[in-house]
Structure formats: structure tokens, C-alpha cells
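Quick sanity check, Sperm-associated antigen 7 homolog:
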Amino acid sequence: MDLLGSILSAMEPPPGLGDRESRRAKEQTARLKKLQEQEKRQKAEFRKQMEKEVSDFIQDSGQTKKRFRPMNKIERSILHDVVEVAGLTSFSFGDEEESRYIMVFKKEFAPSDEELEAYRQGQEWDPQQAEEKRRLKELAQKQAEEEAQKGPVVVSPNTDYKDKYSHLIGKVAAKDAAHTMEANKAYGCVPVANKRDTRSIEEAMNEIRAKKRLRQTEDEGPAPSSNSS
């Protein structure tokens, strides 16, 4: 055997297709494991940092609440867990994911519903202003209850409009009466007052008897005349 043949026979054969895929899968697994370890290390460092900030917050007697910088979902989850373990209260605020942040409160200074609503609307919380609004609201409610107990308000004018405008009312009434009389004449209507009989009973009976005698006389005809011879 020549020298070249002996060298070639001593070398390993080139890897096949299956060997290349297996090596690529091993490299990807190694990279993924490395990334997972890196992420795990970053989470542990972040948690350690949050534990220190929360501990400093607890020890600071001058602070009742603390607002943290905007965080992603994973960081917020870690901070919420640290706060719960420490015995504090935490809330997330912010509409957009990249702008959401966490506020931590000490148990004895837990926020009211009005304070939480202010933070949700992106406003600063002013206790004095909130107390003033609450006082005005209670005052308005009390006044409304008092007005309801008094009943409906009766408005009495200072002067009687009938007395003030009596001359105008009289003219209008006279004008309406004149129109009514004209209408009665036009359509043959007679007011009830004009139909009322003002005669006495005796006068009415005498008139009836006279009409009856006149009717009998007309029925009998003229009396026959007698010729004396």
C-alpha cells in the first residue's frame, strides 16, 4: 500500500446527513438552555433588587406608599409576589402594557376606592381636595333630603294678576259676550235666561183661559142674526 492510501484509511469518514441534523439539534438545545439559565439568573437578580427596595420602603417610616417604574408582565409578577410575602398591598395602573406600573401601600395606609379611581384615571391623589369634595357631596345630599321632606314648593305671586289686569279682563269678557249674542241671532239661538217665564202662575192661567175661549169662539162661528118682522 502506498503512503497516500495509508493516510486516507487512517482518517475518519465524513459525517452523514443524520449526523449533521443531530449535531444541529444539540447546538440548539445548548443555546436554549443557556438562554433559560440567563433568564433565570436575571429574574433572581431582579427579585433580589425588588426585595431590597421593598425592605427599604418598609423601614422608611416617612413613606406610606411607593410608586415603581413601568415594568413588563414578568417583572410585575415578581414584584407582586415580593410585596405579598412582605405583607404589603400592591396595585397595577396604566392602560398601555409598556406604561403599566405598580404602587405599593403599607397595610395601615391602604388606599380608598376614591384614591384608586384617581390613579386609574391617571390623576394625582390629593387627600384634602378629596375630603372637600366628600363634604360638599354630603351637604348637597342633606339639602336634597330636607327639600324632599318639605314637599312641593308653592309659588305665590306678590300681586293678583286678576286685579292688575281687571280692565283688560273686563273688556275681553264683554267682547266675548257680544260675539255670543251675535252668534245666537245668526243661528236662531236664544239664551236660556231669555227662555225663562217671569210671569206669575195666575197671570199664566188667565192667559191660557183667554186663549181657550178665543179658540172656542172661532170653532162655533158667528151667531145667527134674527129678523123681526
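Posting the structure with no commentary besides this: The first strand starts at residue 65 and ends at 67.
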